[in-house]
Design goal:
The protein is an alpha+beta fold. It has a single domain (3-193), classed as NADH Oxidase. Helix content is 43%, strand content 15%. The chain has helices at residues 3-9, 24-34, 54-63, 68-72, 99-113, 117-141, 153-160, 190-193; strands spanning 46-51, 75-82, 145-149, 166-175. It has a four-stranded antiparallel β-sheet with strand order 1-2-4-3. Helix 1 packs across helix 6 (117-141) and helix 3 packs antiparallel against helix 7. The two termini are 37 Å apart. The protein binds flavin mononucleotide. Flavin mononucleotide (FMN) is lined by residues 11-12, 14, 67, 147-150, 170, 181, 184-185.
Length: 199
């Protein structure tokens, strides 16, 4: 599929076909693609919790205000971020780079995020959000569709035993469309969103 088609065809699906079963190989392919997403200092902050067990999905449905995507989709991922990934063996993020580049990057990682929780969170959230978009576009390429969702983060965190140094980015439901979504609800124009040089 052409990238432009994947972008144009992607819609948020509210009703998924509950009969469609996704394979482990498909999930692997999706996550492998997500890992190619750009991330701040290549830290790859994203962590995906595959909500799989029926009892877990039932509670996840409650934590997403009973939206049907959670119970009907073929794959439900809780997109999380490891806020402290920059401290966790950061040399692995630059293991294949020339030594001088790796040293420079590691020095910068440790300097920039130290004592800067806002930047630490912003950069991890940016990176995880982009990984979610990769998943959505890869899903299109694989003949699947998706819906990004908000959730009650405290309930969801308790459900998945979220580590204290992690945060939640979004819930992502993926599967086969059961019903067409309504037409795009209201698109802004290029002029509405493009600012040249300054506001
Ligand atoms: C961060 C985020 C949270 C969203 N939360 C929900 C949600 O909880 N339920 C839902 O049905 N759609 C949710 N959406 C999907 C948006 O409603 C949808 O992207 C928007 O209406 C545009 O429609 P489209 O994605 O079909 O182009 C969310 C999207 C994003 C990016």
């Amino acid at each position: 599929m052409k990238v432009s088609d994947a972008i144009r065809n992607r819609r948020s699906i509210n009703l998924f076909d509950p009969a469609y079963k996704i394979s482990d190989a498909q999930v692997h392919e999706l996550i492998e693609a997500a890992n190619l997403t750009p991330s701040a200092f290549n830290i790859q902050h994203w962590r995906f919790v595959w909500l799989r067990d029926a009892a877990v999905l039932k509670q996840a449905g409650e934590a997403t205000w009973f939206q049907p995507q959670v119970t009907d989709a073929s794959l439900v991922l809780l997109v999380c971020l490891d806020l402290k990934a920059w401290q966790k063996a950061p040399e692995r993020y630059w293991a294949n780079a020339p030594q001088d580049v790796a040293t420079h990057m590691l020095d910068n990682i440790l300097r920039i995020y130290d004592n800067n929780p806002l930047l630490e969170r912003d950069e991890a959230m940016r990176s995880a959000s982009m990984a979610a978009m990769t998943l959505m576009l890869k899903a299109q390429d694989m003949g699947l569709e998706s819906c990004a969702m908000a959730c009650d983060e405290r309930r969801m965190a308790a459900l998945v035993n979220l580590p204290r140094d992690h945060a939640i980015c979004m819930v992502l439901a993926l599967g086969k469309r059961f019903k067409d979504p309504y037409p795009r609800p209201g698109l802004l124009s290029v002029e509405d969103v493009l600012v040249t040089d300054s506001f």
